[in-house]
Write a structure and sequence with these properties.
This protein is 34% helix and 15% strand. By secondary structure, it is of the alpha/beta class. The protein folds into 2 domains: 2-45 and 100-205, Ribosomal protein L4/L1 (Ribosomal Protein L4, Chain: A, 3-Layer(aba) Sandwich), CATH 3.40.1370; 51-91, no CATH class. A 6-stranded mixed sheet has the order 2-1-3-6-4-5. α5 links the parallel β4 (151-155) and β5 (172-176). α2 (30-44) crosses α3 (103-119). It is elongated. The chain starts with a strand and ends with a helix.
Length: 207
């Protein structure tokens, strides 16, 4: 098993932690990371674009003029697509952009993303992150001690003081361990985990 240093919030090493090679030190498969990011972004698309076809546009129930004798082409309704104000032909309608990705692929992609940060030496493990109250200033001071300004912070369990304190800090996002995902890992330059979060992630991915 690989070893990684564990720091406190003052950036002082307090211990070492054995981390699973099957989770944090696998062969990186970039195509899986790419597939997973596409999957996540596709699921976020709303797909609410909508247009009315000729049957949905109001009016047009009467022929605009008689069938013969006018010298014009015959017309059945002014709501046909070739009329101004008519319906749209083959326009977009509500749809889902989501596609299927197997659970094994999702797990492998997450392992690859975690391994990227470990191998790039951009993974930091803290023994704990605790704040007595909601304080953006206190949280920013912790980041200054760690010398990071762009990071995904993953905590174990509910930690409202940390979560609320980080909301207004630019370039920082706090997630609970059960919500860690490939897109956010790759979207931030650094990954900060608590010891509890490491255990939670290993337990979920080693099953």
């Amino acid at each position: 098993m690989a070893k990684i240093a564990v720091y406190d919030i003052e950036n002082k090493q307090v211990s070492e932690l054995d981390i699973s090679d099957d989770v944090f030190n696998v062969d990186v498969k970039e195509y899986l990371i790419h597939d997973m990011v596409r999957y996540q972004l596709a699921k976020r698309r709303r797909g609410t674009a909508d247009t009315k076809n000729r049957s949905q546009v109001r009016g047009g129930g009467k022929k605009p003029y008689r069938q013969k004798g006018t010298g014009n082409a015959r017309q059945g309704t002014v709501r046909a697509p070739h009329f101004v104000g008519g319906g749209t032909a083959f326009g977009p309608g509500p749809r889902s952009y989501a596609f299927k990705l197997n659970s094994k692929v999702k797990k492998a992609a997450l392992k690859s993303a975690l391994s990227v940060r470990f191998k790039e030496d951009k993974l930091t493990v803290l023994n704990a992150i605790e704040l007595e109250s909601v304080s953006t200033r206190s949280f920013s001071r912790i980041l200054e001690q760690l010398d990071v300004d762009n990071a995904l912070v993953v905590v174990d369990g509910t930690n409202p003081n940390v979560e609320l304190s980080a909301r207004n800090v630019k370039g920082i996002k706090v997630l609970r361990a059960e919500g860690v995902n490939v897109y956010d890992i790759m979207n931030f330059g650094n990954l900060i985990l608590t010891e509890g979060a490491v255990s939670h992630i290993e337990g979920a991915l080693e099953q």
